[in-house]
Amino acid sequence: MIKIKGTLKGAASVEEEPKALVKKRQKKPQKLMQTGECPELEELMGSPPVDEAPPSVIGLIDSVLLEKTTEMHYLAPSGMFKCPRAAVFQYWGANRGRAPTPPRFTRIVDEGSAVHSVLQRYLSDLRFDYWFIPETKNHVVIDDVNISGSCDGVLVRRSDGYRWGIEIKTKSVRSFEEAKASERPESADKKQALVYAVSQGLWWMTIIYWNKNTQELLEFNVQVSPQFYEKFKERVRYLKPFVLDDTHTHLPEFDKGKCSTMFCKFVDECKRRGGNPDIKDPADGDGGWY
Fold first, then answer.
1. I need a labelling partner for 154 at 20 to 30 A (CA). Which of 1, 5, 249, 250 fits?
2. Which residues pair with 5 in a beta bridge?
């Protein structure tokens, strides 16, 4: 069972749309006054008049406030394909009783947040041909399992409504150069981006890497495929019996290979339940996915 709530519906690509529709759009690209001429109203708007009035904004606000009275349990796209225990703890809303975060860790997180804000501001300043929607939230239900998160943004081409998602990652010099040499993003980053794409109705995502030392940028375009969607559903089915266990007693086996403790908030809970996570310093390379 698949339900999507409040998502952005994305066209697959211009090439995949009906030929007649593509031909019509190609004849009248939206120029938005760039030529200095005064276009006809429909040309400026990019479509004929829309008869449907918007829904009640007050009603939407009230629905959000009512939903906030009920705690929502969900899988986060950023953790679905990483440590399965952390994903289950996240869904349960387990105790985040880890010792105070070392100041250096806090600075790393704050640096990443600042870089996100800078790139989002650049994209928000786009004129004429595109507009940018930052921090697009998604809520989707796959096989009775909630998945919720916030993509770094969605770009929309004004002329035809084509849209795709943006995922921003700050990288150490080593991680950045490895991705540059291999000409592909890290596997975990690609999976996270594609989960956002699936849950927001987008066929494409652009992953942007920011080199922390040189401020150089890399970009990788990744597309949702039937093969990935099958892996996505398979992962949900694997986690489902654990996350929907109301007794909170059944957990995946501890997997040292999947354990990344640098930013994990469930280290103490994992230890209490038989896991053996080791706290590492960022210099050791643990948590370099952030």
1. 1
2. 139
Instruction: Report how far apart, in Å, the C-alpha atoms of 64 and of each of 69, 196, 204, 231 are.
Output: 9, 21, 28, 32
Q: Does a structural domain hold residue 150?
A: yes
pLDDT in tens, 203-235: 999 999 999 999 999 999 999 999 999 999 999
Sequence length of the chain is: 290
Indicate if the pLDDT at residue 71 is higher than 90.
no
What is the domain extent for residue 122?
2-15+71-284
Please name which of 52, 18, 38, 26 lies closest in space to residue 157, comparing C-alpha atoms: 26
pLDDT, tens digit, for every residue of 243-279?
999 999 899 999 888 887 777 888 888 888 888 887 6
What CATH number is given to the structural domain containing 182? 3.90.320.10
| Cβ proximity of 167 and 151 under 8 Å | yes
pTM to 2 decimal places: 0.75
Element (H, E) at 59: helix 57-67
User: Which of 34 and 282 is assigned the larger pLDDT?
Assistant: 34
CA distances from 232 to 28, 33, 86, 289 (A): 38, 43, 17, 19
User: How many domains does the chain fold into?
Assistant: 1
Mean per-residue pLDDT of the chain = 81
